[in-house]
TrEMBL record:
GO terms for molecular function: ubiquitin-protein transferase activity. This is HECT domain-containing protein. GO terms for cellular component: cytoplasm. The active site is at C1009. CDD domains: HECTc. Gene3D superfamilies: Hect, E3 ligase catalytic domain, Hect, E3 ligase catalytic domains, Regulator of chromosome condensation 1/beta-lactamase-inhibitor protein II. Keywords: Repeat, Transferase, Ubl conjugation pathway. Residues 712-1041 form the HECT domain. It comes from the Eukaryota. It comes from Steinernema glaseri.
Length: 1041
């Protein structure tokens, strides 16, 4: 079987290429008839498209040649003259290869493969885009439009789609006629893939399957739920999720075909052309053609008042049949439900117009739903396309450059690029970007790794600048909340390799990108939130990296950037950071600007922030409106401070901020008078600059409790000074260190019953034993806060769970594993179990057994828990309640009471806004330090006094002896030197030991307040090590020399 062309309907003027006077008295073909005279090849008829006017027909051959037949009173056949027409199909001299055709009532149009657009025929309404003659009798180029890919004809109008995605309209439109093509501006950022036209209405389909319609709408042919004419395109919202792949327009009705093979129709329906089984003058809402449910429609076409569809090679038709256009074999007034056209069995494509229908039969049936004729679309980029260009043996750089220029100079093309090849390309929405970001990533990586990457990058930036970024108010015509397709490119752009080089393209690339993101946040905050939170880690991280790189550039060049641009960038980063807190996309340190301490005085920044009212300022009052982009820094409502963006601060910077906050609070507290009781004179007030604590070593706990109970809140805010009763040491830091060291050693002893140590992890936790009152735990909380407040590291062996709870973070199974490893790993095994037999394998219920002083106590995790088995469905709840009971509540909620008392005590002392900037592990390191030792850095940081220098024999002997010590001995040396074996959060670089000479007969002495070491002047390494080891065994007590 070869391809065969059939026609039926009105043919009195030769529309089918035959004279019907001897075939049909009515001038009609009521049933399909094979047509001859059309172009053929070895496979049969070689027709790829047929366009029908009211009384003429245009055919496109597979070889790109154009043919025409029928009436020609307006020159619509394109044969250089207006005459009585032709009953024979003749070629139209075009001089170029044609890729697509269309026909209006009395005019025709064609698109060539080089992007030229030609129109001819009636021109009284300027449908040929020319003023003057009423008819154009041969193809005339529309010079205003280049690089055309599609054209559609209304009755007396034209619609064109460019390679750039731009849509033009001209001719007669809503009672106005104009010859100069006008841009349909809404589509400047929406990727249109198909256009269609009715008598006086137009429809466009986008890459994501959205449908827009505009024009005459008295019968609801625009599908917008009303019958009001629309001068501008409106979204047919009821089709948003239907995956539309093709639309066809009749005179005053429209039919949409979905990827799933369903038909939706709307508009004029007096003759049943909507196929809904009823007649009505107007149907403004898309209606499913329910008679075809269960069938997969592959092609659809509309005539003036009839519709034809293809299902598994069979043609079904409905609507007006007065001229036989339904092909049923008879002339009837109307058919209101789809009827099968007999004698056609393997139809692959179908075309209709006015009162004619054409069908092509072929050996194989097409089972894909798509437009009837192949259509070119605007330039869209993909990895496969770029790889093809890069691997082309001709290595034609002009082709590569041309492709990139076409895509990146048009927001519509950029938004249509990197589309999925499956159903994910449809229904762009808050839950679906409808863009393959991995394909985007690989494509931009190909560009970045190209030998001419810098040149290609420059070309892309220039194109973006002139096209995508040219109009700052990108959402003024189409809000992203209505159609998110307008802003898809914002999710793709971070993968462009030049995005992380703001030093090259700050003003031309980075800042326009940031401002567009901020516009999206303004116009569609929920869309941005859903898109960013739904990104895979690699894409989320890339967005963070781009913004972080930009911020670093802004900080490096403060005099070259607008402060408002800095604020916009940081606000977007803050938004990303908050999303990351909720969705845990990347580690928080990806937001850290590690160079901040070097490039900004964070302590001074804090003091300004704390004193100029910024600390109390509502960040939501900062003007972030689109119109404020041009605001000068002086117009901002508050000064700029880095403290407003704490996510930028790494642990070291946060510690510096906390220290600055403490110093500021200490200064303020020191100015306030203290109240004390003076014997015989009663109450008196006086200025005391420090919080003085004097204790006896033998009664350190009791004495400290007594002092804290009688202290005022203002006292806690002052610098702490400690004195051991009967000792002459003046506290410059070292006595304070020893005070906390000894105090916590005592408090953690079992005799107090406050804390219990896990024998496996050696971490301690609240005992849960009702043996100590809440005051004791409040006391410990205050002590911990005092240590942090006064920048003293303490030996406080609590796991990270404590710091999570202090900062309001949720506990996870990892916290239980850290404290009780075996117990926690059992819970992890429950979580990780893959089979659907949790109840049988684990045999658990919502009742657990807790060891209390050697006795097992059963505790229900929720009411009736002993009778509720743990299953696959409820195991997550079980784990959550288990962790909560073990770490936060305890038996009888005793741990909860102890924990709350501790937390209240801690917060009563630490009235800190900065504390909440910390991550749990950072707060842990701030309190207890860390053991990230780098002994080479320790040596490099050491300073020498007097006759000592790095090459001195005594110094050489010291370091030789030191590096012979094992790790535990070195840690003891740190304890000897500075009162703690752990190092500050900033690491070894924050430690500076000062070594000064003393006579050779002495032993080393440490002045812990200054990290000062008195080192005897001896050059014998063995003797030096001996004396060091002797000192390390006696680390309590402090001596001033």
């Amino acid at each position: 079987m070869k391809k065969t062309l059939y026609g039926f309907g009105l043919g009195v003027d030769g529309q089918f290429g035959i004279r019907l006077s001897g075939v049909s008295d009515s001038g009609c073909l009521a049933a399909p008839q094979q047509l001859f005279g059309a172009p053929v090849d070895e496979f049969g008829v070689a027709v790829t498209a047929v366009a029908c006017g009211e009384r003429h027909t245009v055919l496109l051959g597979a070889d790109g040649k154009l043919w025409s037949v029928g009436a020609n009173e307006s020159g619509q056949l394109g044969r250089s003259g207006a005459d009585q027409g032709s009953f024979t199909i003749y070629p139209v001299e075009m001089g170029t290869r044609i890729i697509q055709i269309a026909a209006g009532q009395n005019h025709s149009a064609a698109v060539s493969d080089d992007g030229r657009l030609f129109v001819w025929g009636r021109n009284a309404e300027f449908q040929c885009a020319r003023t003057g003659p009423a008819s154009i009798t041969k193809p005339s180029r529309v010079v205003e439009i280049t690089e055309a890919v599609q054209v559609a004809c209304g009755a007396n109008s034209c619609l064109a789609l460019q390679q750039s995605g731009t849509v033009y309209v001209w001719g007669s439109f809503l009672a106005e006629s104009f010859a100069v093509p006008r841009v349909v501006s809404i589509f400047s950022r929406i990727p249109v893939v198909q256009i269609s036209a009715g008598d006086d209405h137009f429809v466009a389909v986008t890459s994501a399957g959205f449908v827009y319609a505009w024009g005459r709408n008295e019968y609801g042919q625009c599908g917008t739920g009303d019958t009001t004419d629309h001068a501008k395109p409106k979204l047919v919202k009821q089709l948003n999720t239907m995956k539309t792949v093709s639309v066809s327009c009749g005179g005053n009705h429209t039919v949409a075909l979905t990827k799933d093979g369903r038909l939706f129709s709307f508009g004029y329906n007096v003759f049943g052309q909507l196929g809904t089984g009823r007649k009505e003058e107007a149907q403004p809402d898309p209606q499913l053609v329910s008679e075809l449910l269960g069938s997969h429609v592959t092609k659809v076409a509309c005539g003036r008042v009839h519709t034809v569809a293809v299902v598994n090679g069979r043609v079904l038709s409905f609507g007006l049949n007065s001229n036989g256009q339904l092909g049923t074999g008879s002339l009837s007034n109307a058919v209101i439900t789809p009827q099968v056209v007999r004698d056609l069995h393997k139809v692959t494509t179908i075309f209709a117009g006015y009162d004619q229908t054409f069908a092509v039969e072929a050996p194989e049936v097409d089972l894909m739903s798509a437009p009837s004729a192949p259509l070119e679309t605007p330039k869209f980029l993909s990895m496969s396309r770029l790889r093809q260009l890069f691997t082309d043996k001709s290595d034609n750089k002009l082709d590569i450059i041309g492709e990139l220029e076409s895509v990146f100079s048009s927001a519509a093309c950029f938004n249509g690029s990197f589309a999925y090849t499956d159903d994910r390309r449809f229904n762009c929405s808050p839950t679906n970007i409808a863009m393959n970001l991995d394909d985007c990533m690989y494509t931009f990586n190909l560009i970045a790794n190209h030998g001419d990457a810098d040149r290609l990058g420059e070309i892309i930036v220039n194109c973006l600048k002139m096209g995508v970024f040219e109009d700052g108010n990108i959402f003024g015509r189409c809000l992203p909340s209505e159609n998110p397709e307008v802003c898809k490119f914002l999710m793709a752009l971070p993968w462009f390799h030049e995005m992380v080089h703001p030093e090259k393209y700050y003003d031309d690339l980075f800042i326009p990108f940031v401002k567009l993101l901020n516009s999206l946040k303004r116009y569609a905050p929920e869309l941005l939130r859903r898109w960013w939170s739904g990104l895979a880690t690699r894409h989320f991280n890339k967005a963070v990296l781009v913004l972080m790189t930009g911020v670093e550039h802004q900080i490096d060049h403060p005099d070259e950037v607008d402060q408002f641009d800095v604020i916009i960038t940081l606000r977007l980063l803050k938004y990303l950071y908050k999303l990351n807190q909720d969705y845990a996309k990347v580690p928080v340190d990806h937001f850290y600007l590690d160079s901040l301490m070097e490039k900004a005085d964070v302590r001074s920044d804090y003091f300004r922030w704390a004193t100029d009212g910024s600390a109390e300022f509502d960040e939501n009052e900062v003007p972030m409106a689109l119109g404020s982009f041009l605001s000068a820094p002086s117009q901002l409502q508050k000064p700029f401070h880095f403290v407003d963006y704490p996510f930028l601060f790494n642990a070291e910077a946060k510690a510096a901020l906390l220290e600055a906050e403490a110093q500021f609070a200490m200064y303020q507290a020191a100015q306030r008078p203290s109240t004390t009781v003076i014997p015989y004179f009663g109450i008196a007030q006086f200025i005391r600059p420090n919080f003085h604590v004097e204790v006896r070593r033998a009664n350190i706990v009791e004495d400290t409790i007594h002092v804290l109970e009688n202290a005022s809140p203002h006292d806690f805010a002052k610098p702490l000074r400690v004195q051991f009763h009967g000792e002459e040491g003046h506290d410059e830091g070292g006595v304070r260190k020893e005070f906390f060291l000894l105090l916590f050693q005592q408090l953690l002893q079992p005799q107090y019953g406050m804390f219990l140590e896990d024998s496996e992890s050696h971490y301690v936790w609240f005992s849960g034993l009702d043996v100590a009152d809440a005051v004791s735990f409040n006391f410990v909380g205050r002590l911990c806060a005092l240590a942090v407040y006064n920048a003293v590291l303490v030996d406080f062996p609590f796991p990270s769970a404590l710091y999570k709870l202090l900062l309001g973070h949720k506990l996870t199974v990892d916290d239980l594993i850290m404290l009780h490893p075996t117990e926690g790993r059992s819970l992890q095994a429950l979580i990780d179990h893959e089979d659907n037999d949790v109840e049988d394998v684990f045999g658990l219920s919502f009742q657990i057994s807790v060891d209390v002083l050697g006795e097992a106590v059963d505790v229900e995790l929720k009411p009736g828990g002993k009778d509720i088995p743990v299953t696959n469905e409820n195991r997550t709840e079980f784990v959550r309640l288990y962790i909560q009971r073990r770490l936060e509540l305890g038996i009888g909620d005793v741990i909860s009471q102890q924990l709350n008392a501790f937390r209240n005590g801690f917060r009563n002392v630490m009235h800190s806004k900065i504390l909440d900037f910390f991550q749990p592990h950072e707060l842990m390191e701030l309190m207890v330090g860390n053991e990230n030792y780098d002994w080479d850095v320790f040596k490099e940081n050491t300073e020498y006094k007097g006759e000592y220098f790095a090459g001195h024999n005594a110094i050489k002997a010291f370091w030789d002896a030191f590096f012979e010590l094992d790790l535990e001995q070195r840690k003891k040396f740190l304890l000897f030197l500075m009162g703690s074996a752990r190092i500050p959060v900033a690491g070894m670089k924050a430690l500076k030991m000062v070594v000064q000479p003393v006579p050779s007969h002495l032993y080393p002495v440490a002045h812990t307040c200054f990290n000062l070491l008195d080192l005897p002047n001896i050059a014998d390494k063995t003797e030096m090590k001996k004396r060091l080891l002797a000192c390390l065994e006696h680390t309590q007590g402090f001596t001033l020399v």
